[in-house]
Amino acid sequence: FLATTEIDKNRVVHWLLQHLNVIFIDKSSMDLNALRQCNKALKSGRTLVIFPEGTRFHEGMMEDIKNGASLLILRNRVQVLPVYLDKKVRPFRVTHVDVGEPIPVEDLWEKGTNAEACEELNERMRETYRRMIQESQARREKKKKGGKADADRDTVA
Q1: DSSP 68-118
Q2: By the 8 A CB rule, do 102 and 81 touch?
Q3: What is the pTM of this model?
Q4: According to the model, what pLDDT value does residue 55 have?
Q5: Which helix (H) or strand (E) holds 24?
Q6: E strand or H helix that includes residue 35
Q7: Which H or E run contains 149?
Q8: Phi/psi of residue 84, each to 5°?
Q9: Among 76, 85, 5, CA closest to 42
Q10: Residue 139: what pLDDT?
Q11: Vertex 1: Cα angle to 121 and 113 (nearest 5)
C-alpha cells in the first residue's frame, strides 16, 4: 500500500504499517524516496495498492486523479486492476468492494511517461470508476427493491 505520512504519527500504527510493507509518501512535496520504493516493489513483481486521488475515500466520482499512479503504471509497464469501495472503511461496518476488469494500458506504454500519456490513462481510470460507481449504485438500488440474490453476486463485503 502507498500511504501518506500523515497516518504515520502514532508509534503503534507506524510499527504495524511498517510490518505490512506500507510505503509512506509525503504528499506535501515530490517524495523521490517513496517513488523509488514504489518502482522497486513493482519491478520485483509485487502488487502495489494506490489510491489515485491521493486519499482512501473521497465523496464523488473519482474526478481528481493525480498523475503519480499513471506515472508508476507507465514507467513500470504494469497492469491496472481497478477496485472501488462504496464508502469509507470503518470497523464493524459493511463496505462493498467491487473489482473491475483490468484497464487496457499496453498501447500507452509505447507513448512513454509524458504528460499526454498520463492524462490519457487518468481519463481511462476516471471512465472506469464512473462505470463502476454507476453499477454499484444500481446493484444497491436493486437490492433495496428485493433483488438481493442478483445484487450480491459480484460484490465482496
Answers
A1: HHHHHHHHHT--B--EEESS---TTS---EEE-PPBP-HHHHTT-SSHHHH
A2: yes
A3: 0.76
A4: 59
A5: strand 23-25
A6: helix 32-43
A7: helix 148-151
A8: -120, 125
A9: 76
A10: 85
A11: 30
